[in-house]
Amino acid sequence: MIRRIKNSIWSVLNFLGVAGILQLSWKGKYLSEKGWLKSFRLKRSIDKNGKPIPWCTYSFIQFIEPRLTKEMDAFEFGCGNSTLWYAERIKSIKAVEHDQQWANFIQPLLPVNAKIIFRSLMANDEYSGEVNIDGKKYHIIIIDGRNRNQCTYQAVQSLAADGIIVFDNSQISEYAPAMEFLHQQNFRRIDFFGMLPIVPTENCTTIFYRPNNCLNI
């Protein structure tokens, strides 16, 4: 009788589409430790302690975090919790953002070694070209915003000799031109497939690198 009641309850929960989430909440130790359950509930890219993390695959975060140093400078296309996360671990980070409202929301949260520049997508190449404005060479360039193919073409000009490119959502077919371009520039790649915060879907975050890079890979 008890088993029949349980089965009936699970049938209803399955019909409502919540059974899987409940099972993950009760038994998903990995997801709980990574903070996925909290990020799913709050719809924010955070770890189990509520601290900001990049909205990319957990496998990538686990790989790159111990390799970051306070001597590294980064540039990021698109700002957010990732900007805050990198700022805690490297020397400096500059981000370009196309959404003025979002930039205004993140701006007060930034530490002194991070800054955000607003650039409209309507202006001719101002967004993708911001990476080259200062004439600076970056150890890490993160491509996680708009116009990603164009941003990739611009980014290589400001990448340090030992620099790496982090390309999120690299599994999406519309970014194939950027993938091919980096291949032609003799970059090697490591793909990090897996789950990411907030959503129950698979994603791929890719590191593009050359020999003698700053991550020692």
CATH class of the largest domain: Alpha Beta
Oligomer designation: single chain
Structural class: alpha/beta
Main sheet: which strands, in order across? 3-2-1-4-5-7-6
The percent range for strand residues is: 15-25%
Q: What gyration radius follows from the Cα positions, in whole Å?
A: 20 Å
Write the layout of secondary structure elements.
Blueprint: H1 2-16, H2 19-27, H3 29-34, H4 36-42, H5 58-64, E1 73-77, H6 81-87, E2 92-97, H7 100-106, E3 114-118, H8 126-129, E4 138-143, H9 148-155, E5 159-168, H10 176-184, E6 188-195, E7 202-209
Parallel strand pairs: 1-2, 1-4, 2-3, 4-5
Antiparallel strand pairs: 5-7, 6-7
Helix pairs in contact: 9-10
Explain what you see:
The protein is an alpha/beta fold and 217 residues long. It has a seven-stranded mixed β-sheet with strand order 3-2-1-4-5-7-6, with helices on both faces. Strand 6 (188-195) and strand 7 (202-209) form a beta hairpin. The chain has helices at 2-16, 19-27, 29-34, 36-42, 58-64, 81-87, 100-106, 126-129, 148-155, 176-184, and strands spanning 73-77, 92-97, 114-118, 138-143, 159-168, 188-195, 202-209. The chain has two domains: 2-34; 58-209, Rossmann fold.
